[in-house]
Amino acid sequence: MGLYQRCRRLRFPGLHACGLHTAAVPTPPHWLVERLGYFEELWTAQVKRLASMAQEEQRTIKISLPGGQKVDAVAWKTTPYQLAQQISSNLADTAVAAQVNGEPYDLERPLETDADLRFLTFDSAQGKAVFWHSSTHVLGAAAEQLLGAVLCQGPSTECGFYHDFFLGKERTVKGSELPVLERICQDLAAAAQPFRRLEASQAQLRQLFKGNPFKLRLIEEKVTGPTATVYGCGMLVDLCRGPHLRHTGQIGGLKLLSNSSSVWRFPGAPETLQRVSGISFPTAEELRAWEEWREDAELRDHRRIGKEQELFFFHELSPGSCFFLPRGTRVYNALVAFIRAEYTRRGFSEVKTPTLFSTKLWELSGHWKHYREDMFALQPPGLDRPSSSQSDHSASPAADTLALKPMNCPAHCLMFAHRPRSWRELPLRLADFGALHRAEASGSLGGLTRLRCFQQDDAHIFCAPDQLQAEIRGCLDFLHSVYTILGFSFHMALSTRPSGFLGEPCLWDQAEQVLQQALEEFGAPWDLSPGDGAFYGPKIDVHVRDALGRPHQCGTIQLDFQLPLRFDLQYKGQSGALERPVLIHRAVLGSVERMLGVLAESCGGKWPLWLSPFQVVVIPVGTEQEEYAREAQQSLQAAGLVGDLDADSGLTLSRRIRRAQLAHYNFQFVVGQREQSKRTVNIRTRDNRRLGEWDLAEAVQRLLELQDTRVPNAEEIF
Ligand SMILES: [Zn+2]
Ligand SMILES: [Zn+2]
């Protein structure tokens, strides 16, 4: 209760807090007060309604708690929060939301039926999503009060949250406004304002949001039932499905990170919006720890490492495409060689397919309809430029238009179809490192994360329906081997059919079951994302966590029932009849470029030997040993290892060793008089461990072994 009283006192933080706010926050605009008044009216009615329902029904419901215990509760009255309190005060304090029969649920929302009750805390991904989603409401409230923002949407992301809002045609958020906005957010959080869930009719929704054209549009497009929920929190009233925290006081630390612009992409004319993003934590200490972690992460930024280690660069004359320098290409090729070795072991056949295709192919595959905006289309030389009516986004391209491939699948379908196929050839696993082009907006380009040209470790498996299970198992095993070597832990999610899926429901049932069974057999934890599949098939999304614990979406295993139909793919079955294959799209690294960036950050530039562009530097003690040092360098290079020479006689030996260690050379071969006469090398690691004197040929041999086995710690086990 105490918290709630505090919250009422502080409902208008800008009006009475420190001078900064008094100056910054204007008196709440009339429409804001009016909206809140109407909300309060509806809220009072709902509170009464629920109380009388509980009173009239007097219905006892059975709730099973985490751990298996079953307790009685009163329908429309008992809340998950009350039950959490009964379990432990610690759980009641740390829970961010409940799960009722698997569905996310507010802690303060009365239970309605018998239920299986679980609690979400900030520790889980779902808990974080609720926490950050609630935080974005606080940001929205602050933006309304400080900037008079018209709110659009504010989702949680994998690492925090953002809110998109409209400030008028000309107005943007200024960097100098962020600290003020942040202070208001912090005050709103400290005020511990409760999130209040209200069910409102379509007419009530339209009344509540009559001043907000974006929300009206959302109501029109997204609210399909007779009612939808809105949440009140302080002065804010927002259309939202929930659930949320009990109150904003659960947010102990909040920081706003950046402001940028974004675009309202709902049907109709696009509108430029302002986007502010931030992050929050249950306690101020956790926020501080995160800030320290972020400083470290910035030092590890792959763009910075790429520059320092001369791995790659970008040029304004080819925006969104990367130049890989010799050392970067070394890492790139080592990654590709790794996947190629796995392909050989796992029965994949590598192929090469064209980059440029007639748009007729993209019409057949459906990309022209669904993906056209993301593709580069061009005219062959010697043809007249298309007239303006053809160059806009008309549905059908000019007959001779070509487009750069954004994915390999249609090319592989052509390859499957170019001659009759028999069941004996299945499963046919076609792998392709072909360059893909996607027309990313220039504003979204940055480093290796998002590029206009990249390669994937892309493969398509054509198999008979009864081979599906074994193939999925094989895909999961492939992912597991590769991520283990790369030092990633990973988590999988099964995405099932969305509304508007194409194809036979029974085919979907079967496929979803196969994927689920394969995941269960595999044994690693996985989540279900109902309705998140593509319209053409269910999929398994794979999120890896790098050495810093940051999530990245890399691999995917995607079933496709539509492409085999569109390309009329068939094979002669065992019975002699023609049958349709199932198609699996799968990638492990995903974009090789992006993976290279992830790895650079994950290892902080200290590459494992097998990927390292700085494997060995040979350092002669004096000029007399330079010739022998060159010989040692040549033996390394002849074996296919990276061998550099530091014969800079202007620097002392210890300075050169230090320099090599700072450059993260896995090993240094120091050669003096003694080593030269015995044809040996004196080996040190980048962590300055002394491995002593080794025969040169044996040392090279040992390095090759360690490289080939792709161990993560060659320096320790040399
Ligand atoms: Zn919400
Ligand atoms: Zn594909």
Largest sheet: 9 strands, mixed
Specify the number of helices: 26
Chain-averaged pLDDT: 90
Low-confidence stretches: 1-23, 387-392
Outline: globular
Query: Roughly how many Å apart are the termini?
Result: 64 Å
Structural class: alpha+beta
Ligand roster? zinc ion
Number of E-type strands:
34
Proportion of β residues? 25-35%
Work out the helicity level.
Answer: 25-40%
Evaluate the radius of gyration: 30 Å
How would you describe this protein?
There is one protein chain. With 718 residues, the protein is α+β, with helices and mostly antiparallel strands. It is built from 26 helices and 34 strands. Strands 16, 20, 21, 22, 23, 24, 25, 26 and 29 form a nine-stranded mixed beta sheet that branches. The protein has a five-stranded mixed beta sheet with strand order 2-1-5-3-4, with helices on both faces. Strands 6, 7, 8, 12 and 13 form a five-stranded antiparallel beta sheet that branches. A hairpin with a 5-residue loop joins strand 1 and strand 2. The N and C termini lie far apart (64 Å). Bound molecules: zinc ion (2 copies). One zinc ion binds next to helix 7.
Write the layout of secondary structure elements.
Layout: H1 2-9, H2 13-16, H3 19-24, H4 30-57, E1 60-64, E2 70-74, H5 80-87, H6 89-94, E3 95-100, E4 103-105, E5 115-121, H7 125-147, E6 150-153, E7 156-157, E8 160-166, H8 177-190, E9 196-201, H9 202-208, H10 213-222, E10 227-233, E11 236-239, E12 253-264, E13 271-281, H11 284-299, H12 302-308, E14 312-314, E15 322-324, H13 326-345, E16 349-350, E17 356-358, H14 359-365, H15 367-370, E18 377-378, H16 388-391, E19 402-404, H17 409-417, E20 428-432, E21 435-437, E22 453-463, H18 468-486, E23 489-495, H19 505-522, E24 526-529, E25 539-545, E26 551-560, H20 562-566, E27 571-572, E28 578-579, E29 582-591, H21 592-603, E30 616-620, H22 626-638, E31 643-645, H23 653-662, E32 667-671, H24 673-678, E33 680-685, E34 690-695, H25 696-708, H26 714-717
Parallel strand pairs: 1-5, 16-20, 23-24, 30-31, 30-32
Antiparallel strand pairs: 1-2, 3-4, 3-5, 6-8, 7-8, 8-13, 9-10, 10-11, 12-13, 14-15, 17-19, 18-19, 20-22, 21-22, 22-29, 23-25, 25-26, 26-29, 27-28, 32-33, 33-34
Helix pairs in contact: 7-8, 12-21, 18-19
